[in-house]
Records
---
Amino acid sequence: MTKKTPYLRDVERLDDDLILPSEMCSLGGIEYIDKRHAAVVEVLLRIPDDPYQYLIQQIDSIEWLIPHKDLYGKVFPVTAKDKINIVGVEVPGRRIIYLSPKLENATVGVRTAVVAHELAHIALKHKLRTASLNEYDQQEREVFRCLIQWGFEQEAKSHRASLKKRHFK
């Protein structure tokens, strides 16, 4: 028997909370543009309430960058009235969550883990740039533990395996 995925909220709630990438909203409701957008929805439906609420509070300082898989280049406007932490210093800016078109060819588990991984960095209030490799590695370990707490253990393991296969870790 397959384990049922526990959803903590529904898609309408995500829409009401204005947490979805703007290109997913239309007059008729939510549209899944591609597999990366579907992974964003999957993660946001499943993450625990405390980090979800924190992400809602932070959403004005977050830009989703999920370019169409056939797009070679484009200039995206990004305004920066909010402050973000870069290497321990508060500066005007926004955080951009980039989801590569290559994820369209990844497994569902890897796509889901990548989205959860990037959102975990924000929920854990990680620095955007670390001062050392040790600090970077520590943040990555914290994210992995966070994904397990959030219920994404299998997806996180799939992501790790894909990184090893591609010689990244």
---
Amino acid sequence: MERVLKLFFLFLLLLFIFLPFFSLYHAIKLGRGAEVRRAIPIPYVVPKIQKELKKHGFHDQLRVTLQKGFNDPRFIDSVFNDPRLGLDSLILFPPRVVPRWKGYSFLFTEESIERGRSFLSKNKKELKRVDSVFSVPPSVVVAILKVETDIGYFLGKYYVPNVFYTKYYINRKRGRSVFHLVKQFRIFLELSQKNNWDPLQIKGSWAGAFGWCQFMPFSDKYYAIDWNGDGVVNLFEKEDAMASIANYLFENGWYKKSKPRQLKSLWRYNRSNTYARAVYEYALIISDNKKSHIF
């Protein structure tokens, strides 16, 4: 029995000693053979690992690819020469936690419902005008704003260029297609130049979505509209965001008195049945729609 205990404690000791080396080897293996530039800051990248990441053209390859078809290659150069562009460690090494929003239960608290109703009441006139054009009820627009950014309160913590930069790097290392990522990245840079943004100051989601309504760059280009008449499409402005949501749903099949088509339209917004049902139910609650289960 004593021998068994000694062997057990020896095993634990060896595990404690060698486990960190296995983790270090995995991280170095992920980065070997590619040029990697540090985002500022990168909280989880150990300096020793960073030194092992050799420069072999990854950074320049992406820069040249983005410049193809771009109207001003110098703008791309300015972004890629900026030390703020780099890998986002929270995407490269994501923490293993259960998302707080899983199941969307946070939507249906008393505070959340009151916040939605308050915003709906304060913006009733503008939302009705949106409804008159796109036939999307005000409460549905508010529900999407609530679930996406808590009605403009939380716009994301990831810098959008670093999201696409990191995902491009990961996909290249794993032999996956990068066509879609490059397309989204290029459109985002086009939007930044057009709107005179500093792209490396724009924050969004882990997927690269941004603004009050969390549109991906492709959706911004094809579905976002200038609703407040200032000549600029800006999803960081409430009015443009509300109308752009309605336009997106309308263009993706929203139809009055057809719940299946409405749910399908909401599904296309986020590719999740749970998301679509949660938005729908929340919209019904804040609209006080007690006579029907459908808009």
